[in-house]
């Protein structure tokens, strides 16, 4: 039983990671092929369109500016550091957890997906463009979405799921 649960966390992680990374890269490829840079395709009028954007900054355009080798190296170093931390945390996850390994796979896939873009192009391809009237959320991509969703999954698991099981451990002890 323990071996089955132990391998389950690895299966979840090792299946989710490449699938999310592939999904991210395929969608970016399709956008590069179908939408000119800074061009848009309306999907839901007044709310959502596909807009091909070059993002030299972090998630949602934070710290964006011109292309700089130092900026690229900085973001690459941050990504490598994040991957190392994710792997260290993953090793500590309890074998019976489902959302924690899935969440860590989503975060790592998102980080690696954007890293691939930085290495290949010197910037990240963003294309999911949400807006309403005069308000525009910064364009983002599947990698950013995976990271954001993973954070919510970790919060749900730590704050609600294990509380119902009668656990009274602290936040950091619940999932790992």
Q: Judging from the principal axes of the Cα atoms, what is the shape?
A: globular
Radius of gyration: 18 Å
| N-end to C-end Cα span | 18 Å
For this structure, the quaternary state is single chain
The average pLDDT is: 86
Q: Into which percentage range does the β-strand content fall?
A: 5-15%
Give the total of beta strands: 4
Sheet/helix structural class: alpha+beta
Question: Which strand order do you get reading across the main beta sheet?
Answer: 1-2-3-4
Query: Largest beta sheet, briefly?
Result: 4 strands, antiparallel
Number of domains: 1
Model regions low in confidence, pLDDT < 50 over at least 5 residues: 166-172
String of helices and strands? HEEHHEEHH
Please give the share of residues in helix: 55-70%
| Total number of helices | 5
């Amino acid at each position: 039983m323990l071996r089955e649960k132990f391998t389950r966390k690895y299966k979840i992680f090792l299946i989710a990671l490449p699938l999310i990374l592939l999904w991210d890269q395929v969608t970016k490829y399709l956008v590069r092929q179908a939408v000119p840079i800074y061009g848009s395709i309306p999907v839901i009028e007044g709310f959502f369109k596909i807009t091909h954007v070059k993002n030299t900054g972090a998630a949602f355009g934070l710290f964006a500016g011109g292309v700089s080798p130092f900026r690229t190296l900085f973001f690459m170093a941050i990504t490598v550091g994040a991957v190392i931390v994710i792997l260290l945390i993953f090793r500590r996850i309890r074998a019976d957890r489902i959302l924690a390994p899935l969440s860590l796979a989503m975060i790592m896939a998102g980080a690696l997906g954007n890293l691939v873009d930085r290495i290949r192009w010197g910037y990240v391809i963003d294309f999911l463009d949400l807006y309403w009237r005069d308000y525009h959320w910064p364009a983002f991509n599947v990698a950013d979405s995976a990271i954001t969703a993973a954070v919510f999954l970790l919060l749900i698991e730590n704050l609600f799921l294990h509380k119902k099981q009668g656990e009274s451990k602290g936040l950091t002890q619940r999932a790992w």
